[in-house]
Design brief:
Phosphoglycerate mutase, PGM_Phosphatase, 6-stranded mixed sheet, phosphatase activity, His_PPase_superfam
C-alpha cells in the first residue's frame, strides 16, 4: 500500500487588537508571534524530514502568510484552494459576548436558535464536505508523499470530528486545534488509518488569546 499524509494546519496567531470575529474578512494578517509560529512549523517539518511535496492554503491572508515559510522550506509554490476557507459566520466583524458584544442586541438572538446546525453560520456538514473534497484532491496530488493544507480552526476541527465518527456539534472551548497546530491524516492506499495531532509551535502558545481565533 502507498502511505500518504495530509497535514491540516491551522494558521498562526492573527493581529486582532479589537478582538472581533474576523471570519472571512480581508486584511487580517498574522501577528509577529504568528509569523514566528509559521517559521517554527516550517523548521520542524524540514528538520524532521517530512516528505512535503505540496503546500495548499485557504485564500485568506492569514493562511497564505502561514503557508509562506513552509513552501519556502521545501522549495514549493503555494497552491490556493477556496474549499478550505474559514466557515461563514453571521457574527463576522463583530465582537461576540453579552457585555458590549453582539449578544446584547435582540436582533442577533434568532441566529442562536440551533447550535446543532449551527444557525449562526455555515452548517457543520457543509464545512466537512468541502474540506474533505480538498483533502481528496490533495491526496491524489501527493499520493505516496505529504501535503500541508493551511486552513482554519473550525473547518479543521469538524473535519476531524467527522473522520473520527463523532458528533459535529461540540463545545468550542474543547477544540483540540491550537494556532499553528497540525492535524495529520494518515492514509494507507485509499484507507484512512490514523489521525494525529501535534503543536510544533507550542512554545509560543502561552498567552495566545482564543477570543476570536478562527
Amino acid at each position: 500500500m502507498v502511505a500518504t499524509t495530509i497535514h491540516l494546519m491551522r494558521h498562526g496567531e492573527v493581529h486582532n487588537p479589537d478582538g472581533v470575529l474576523y471570519g472571512r474578512l480581508p486584511g487580517y494578517r498574522l501577528s509577529e508571534r504568528g509569523l514566528a509560529m509559521a517559521d517554527m512549523v516550517a523548521e520542524h517539518l524540514a528538520r524532521t524530514g517530512r516528505d512535503v511535496v505540496a503546500v495548499i492554503a485557504s485564500p485568506l491572508q492569514r493562511a497564505q502568510e502561514t503557508a509562506g515559510p513552509i513552501a519556502a522550506a521545501f522549495d514549493l509554490d503555494i497552491r490556493t484552494d477556496e474549499r478550505i476557507i474559514e466557515a461563514g459566520n453571521h457574527f463576522e466583524g463583530k465582537t461576540f459576548g453579552v457585555g458590549d458584544g453582539s449578544l446584547r442586541h435582540p436582533e442577533h438572538w434568532p441566529y442562536l436558535r440551533n447550535p446543532f446546525r449551527p444557525s449562526w453560520g455555515e452548517p457543520y456538514k457543509e464545512q466537512v464536505d468541502r474540506m474533505l473534497a480538498g483533502v481528496e484532491t490533495a491526496r491524489e496530488l501527493v499520493r505516496g508523499h505529504e501535503a500541508v493544507l493551511v486552513s482554519h480552526q473550525l473547518p479543521v476541527w469538524v473535519t476531524r470530528l467527522a473522520l473520527e465518527n463523532r458528533h459535529l456539534w461540540h463545545d468550542p472551548r474543547k477544540r483540540q486545534c491550537s494556532v499553528a497546530s497540525l492535524t495529520s491524516l494518515r492514509y494507507d492506499g485509499d484507507t484512512l488509518v490514523g489521525v494525529g495531532y501535534s503543536e510544533p509551535a507550542a512554545s509560543l502558545l502561552p498567552g495566545v488569546s482564543s477570543v476570536a481565533g478562527a
